Hints:
Layout: H1 3-13, H2 16-19, H3 28-37, E1 56-62, H4 63-69, E2 88-96, H5 99-114, E3 119-126, E4 129-137, E5 143-152, E6 156-166, H6 170-174
Antiparallel strand pairs: 1-2, 2-6, 3-4, 4-5, 5-6
Amino acid sequence: xxxxxxxLLCTICCSPLISSxxxxxxxxxxxxxxxxxxxxxxxxxxxxxxxxxxKVQRTFVSGEMLSIAREQLLKNDRWEFKHVVDRLxxxxxxxxxxxxxxxxxxxxxxxxxxxxxxxxxxxxxxNNVEIxxxxxxxxxxxxxxxxxxxxxxxxxxxxxxLTGELTTDDIGNIIKLNKKL
Length: 181
């Protein structure tokens, strides 16, 4: 194992970043290192415009790093990726508690809704929480991208963008639904 991957593995294992992926922090330098580790995945909607926003906690995990991290590091109280980690090529997680940034992310949601490539797969709303799940189909019934928006009131938003080979059945395994949503 190269020194680069030893350092990256230590960063993942010793940090709460990946263990709470959807609410994770990552520094710009770490994001640049991860981005260099593997080519940028092709997605239907890019959130690159939020990369420099200090109000957004942003984590990108490449397929190479996903293969190292595995199931114990890829879950929190909102998401769990252990059932799909072997089929993922990347994960992007965004989280904010900013009203202005949540408004921006809500406008991103509206932009995604208008794109013909994205199919609305699921929409839930309860207790001031909204969850919308979009997918881009690949070959057959497979999804090559899964995009999850989660809004709580007008100040908290989360986005998880997964690329790989997924199915609609995977949605229930990824999103943890409870009384609070």
